[in-house]
Give the backbone structure.
Amino acid sequence: MDTTRNFCIIAHIDHGKSTLADRLLESTGTITERDLKMNQVLDDMDLEQERGITIKLHAVRMHYKHGDGVEYTLNLIDTPGHVDFSYEVSRSLNACEGALLVVDATQGIEAQTISNLYLAIEAGLEIIPVINKVDLASAEVDRVTQGIVDLIGCDPSDVIPVSAKTGVGVENIFNAIIDRVPPPTGDPEAPLQALIFDSVFDPYRGAIVYMRVMQGTIREGDEIRFFYNDKRFEVEELGIFKLQRNRTGELTAGNVGYLIAGIKTVADTNVGDTITHVKGGAEKPLPGYKEVKPMVFSGLYPTVSDDFEDLREALSKLRLNDSSIIYEPETSAALGFGFRAGFLGLLHMEIAQERLEREFDLSIITTVPNVEYFVVMKESGERLPVDNPSSMPEPGKIEHIEEPFIRAQIIVPSEYMGNIMKLCMDRRGVYLNTQYIDPTRADIHFELPLSEIIFDFYDKLKSVSRGYASFDYEFKDYRESDLVKLDILLNGEPVDALSSIVHRQKAYDWGRRLCRKLKELIPRQMFEVVIQAAIGTKVISRDVVKPLRKNVTAKCYGGDITRKRKLIEKQKEGKKRMKQVGAVEIPQEAFLAVLSMED
Amino acid sequence: MPGLYVHIPFCEKKCIYCDFYSIESFRQYDSFLDALHREIAMRADVLPHDIRFHSIFFGGGTPSLLTDVQLGGVLEALRARFRFDDDAEVTVECNPGTVDAAKLRGYRAAGVNRLSFGVQSFHADDLQFLSRIHTAEEAEQAIGAAREAGIDDVNLDLMFSLPGQTTERWMHNLERARALGTTHLSCYSLTVEQGTPLARMVARGMVTMPPEESDADLYAQTMDTLAEWGFEQYEVSNFARDGHVSRHNLTYWRHEDYLGFGPSAHSTWQGRRWWNLSSLDRWLDAIASGCLPEAGGELLDRDTLRREYIYLRLRSEGIDLGDFSRRFDADLVADNRAFIDRCLSGGTLQLADGCLSLTREGMLLCDAICAGLE
């Protein structure tokens, strides 16, 4: 056990985490250059590679021969790099004793990095600061080093300059991991406690649990149980991660590995839960378990109503892989049968949506995402959760509405502070304080309603700071707000799927912008389409999509018939991709119009 | 009864908006005529002999580049292989810059009884923009020559929605056409077809096409004006006086069979459609090696026929619901109840004597209505 080191990498998106991980794997001969090809090894979902982010956690074991002649086992546990997945990050940090803090020498520390750093410090990890991309001309090694020193109070000489791209300095990282990260502790004879930090679904084997044995020993054939849901299984296979699974038959305290036990769905394997033996098991689970709660909700509907069952099937398959998605059937007057689904955040929602379309070949309509509200009723004093604007009770029956607030941390060069302040105030933010990381970079804290950041906040933040601001948040609490339900009517008929909940003071502006955007998105059709925004019975904005004036092919003779027929068929196809609500054809993207609204 | 089409793929100069197949080189002009005779013979060999046609249409390209002798030769070849009505309609598309009274007299003698002139506009700058080779005066002279030659059935093609075209300028064209006294007018909205020089000019911002609103206004005004002048609109773009409709073009819109000869010509025959090779070289090669010069084809199943029938009929004389149900064993109105009701009350469709047809408003929205019908 003294020759084992468990570590992870904390970095901001684009700061080179994946490239560094590849370099470590390559230096230890875990993979060859050929394996790397053009892709980074740790991100193996298509989507991850396209978006350049790590969505699911992975782990890999490396062997490294140290200068002292001893061969060490290094377990690298990868962490997701997006704020939607911060709980998963905290669990994988708990599976490690050390963390590489990777900072881009041309950028400096970002908010994401800081919040993950705090999580790592909280988890008692040894932090090894690394400055990456020192080979670039625009690298500011001294300034960034000073920022790191100020942040974690280390000695400047502790900061390791590297270039993951060229390989310079990578050896120093291995030495630091071995010398500075403590080996795992934990008695192999003690009752079993293993931390689940991830799980993936394999169609043949069921859920494969990624875990860290904190104490005790687990062997194949053991009867185990999960503390949180009290499910029991018999261990079929245990092993460690090379590039593939590598069966070992047992895992002892300090080891990181996988477990297969005929578990049918990943929903049974809660990240953060503790595995122990049925007989002679530990009395208590490991601390820190939290049930992951979805923060963002939206309706998912098949574009063609006949595809409802296919969508149900696809969602259940998706959930086998990603238990943080929840869903239940709902019915919309406009869209028919569909589902209300909950996601960890907007990115998580977009990923799920894209996977549904891509992996299951479905055409789906996603409605405007919203947060979960609590409505306190006048008569009964009941506190009802509302995760769908259309299920908001009558305004007259509502005592008040509560909405979730988050605590946001924004790190930005001080010259953009004014812009950031203005943006946060516009989003109903409550200013808390500002600290300076270094003389030019401010660390601003705000409390904001979650609903104000789920749409375009991140994009706005980037645009008002020329891309320099970074942002992280955590859920704070529910607070009473003056909220109203804004309805959209098309030709006088309310379209429930277009309703949203907005702050009363913003409702007029919101309604006006939404009408204007819908006018842009709804194509001209044979009949006039009147778009109205209303609060209750009061119309606050109105726009009109004028009917088509002329839509006719001028020339149609012999040779043209086949071609002209195909043009009409194309036009028909276009209509089919739209949702018919009454006599109005609404394109899919109109249901997400608020996401593309301009000021 | 079926119609017959002959494609003459040569032009002195291609017009910027045209996407029909034509070439500006006359190198293979003679071999083309020889091969055309061979194609007629080859096709006739694989078809029954007793088919009777009601029309022949020479299109292009510029068919009026043919001398009267050449044209007469082709007609003779056709008559030798196929049967025609005694009063079959024989039309030649003419570029006004390529004909004179002598040539048209020769055409008349060969059996031509209808001419279609691609006039497009009587404004010199419009003609220049469209890269036409004729002048407004030549157009008027050509029509005079047609009358002199004894051909009374004359169509003029005119184009509206040219960039910058005002209502006045368009009305002037209609007035000039009326003054010439022709029996038939085809009035087209200038359409930007992919791959044409015009499409490139629009893409580069050198030309701005008029907006939908003014295009619609000009079209509506055309329909109203011509109706007032006694022209019957029997198709989206076609207007005839005193019953002088084009029987050949009705072949297409009535979904009847037609045979096509020459490069790129299409044919529809008993549930099958095919199209000839459109490159003159390849068309020549195929015929030289004894093959029918088909480039591709499709079988028209009932569903496809139904969709075509709706589209073609609706843009012309309307859909006879009885005929529809006999052909397709289906009830068009029952299958599209909600949509048809909306169109009827919205004033774009009308239903009279068992015939569902477009109103004047409906003509403007023909494609959208067809796309709404199953």
In short: The two ends of chain B are 27 Å apart (CA to CA). Chain B touches chain A through 46 residues (CB under 8 Å). DSSP finds 16 helices and 15 strands in chain B. The domain at 302-373 of chain B is CATH 1.10.10.920 (Arc Repressor Mutant, subunit A).
